[in-house]
Design the sequence.
C-alpha cells in the first residue's frame, strides 16, 4: 500500500499494490502494520457498507464528538464517488480547509480521514457501494454535521446534489 498525505494533515490517499496473475488480482484494503508504519493510529471498531441506488446522492458532512470521535478509511467498491474532507480541528494549520478526490473501482484508491475532520461524498453513478472502516462505533448522540452548502467553505461539487436526506440538508452552517 502506498500512502500519500494530502494538504490536510492526517488525510491520506491510499493506493493499493495489487498482485495480478491469470486468475485476476489480489490486494490489501487494510493492514494494521502498514498503517502503523505511516504513524496512523488506526483502530477498527466498525466496518460499514453504504449502498446508494441513484447517482448524485449526497451523504454528509458527518463527524462525531468525543468520546466517539472517529477516523475512517473509505473505498468505493462499485460505482463512483466524489469525496470531500474538511478539517474542523481548531488547532490545525488547515482549519476550515477542504480537499476532494474521486474514488472508484478503476483507480482502486482509498482515503483515510482522521479524527476531527468531517466527510461527505456525492455519488456519480447509480448503484454505488462504499466500504469504510471506522475507528469508533456509531453513536447517534455524538453525531454532528456541517451543511454541504455552507458559504464559509465554498465547497465545489461536480454537479448539484439531487438526493439528500432531510437530516443532511438541515445540518447547520459552521
Sequence:
Amino acid at each position: 500500500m502506498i500512502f500519500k498525505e494530502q494538504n490536510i494533515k492526517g488525510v491520506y490517499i491510499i493506493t493499493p499494490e495489487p498482485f495480478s496473475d491469470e486468475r485476476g488480482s489480489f490486494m490489501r484494503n487494510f493492514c494494521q502494520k502498514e498503517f502503523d508504519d505511516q504513524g496512523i493510529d488506526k483502530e477498527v471498531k466498525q466496518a460499514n457498507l453504504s449502498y446508494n441506488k441513484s447517482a448524485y446522492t449526497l451523504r454528509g458532512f458527518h463527524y462525531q464528538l468525543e468520546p466517539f470521535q472517529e477516523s475512517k478509511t473509505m473505498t468505493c467498491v462499485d460505482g463512483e464517488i466524489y469525496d470531500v474532507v474538511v478539517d474542523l480541528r481548531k488547532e490545525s494549520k488547515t482549519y476550515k480547509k477542504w480537499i476532494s478526490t474521486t474514488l472508484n473501482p478503476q483507480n482502486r484508491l482509498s482515503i483515510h480521514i482522521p479524527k476531527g475532520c468531517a466527510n461527505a461524498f456525492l455519488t456519480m453513478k447509480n448503484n454505488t457501494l462504499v466500504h469504510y472502516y471506522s475507528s469508533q462505533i456509531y453513536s447517534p448522540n455524538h453525531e454532528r454535521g456541517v451543511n454541504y452548502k455552507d458559504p464559509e467553505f465554498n465547497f465545489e461539487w461536480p454537479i448539484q446534489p439531487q438526493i439528500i436526506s432531510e437530516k443532511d440538508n438541515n445540518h447547520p452552517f459552521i
Residues 42 and 170 are 31 Å apart (CA to CA). The mean pLDDT is 95.
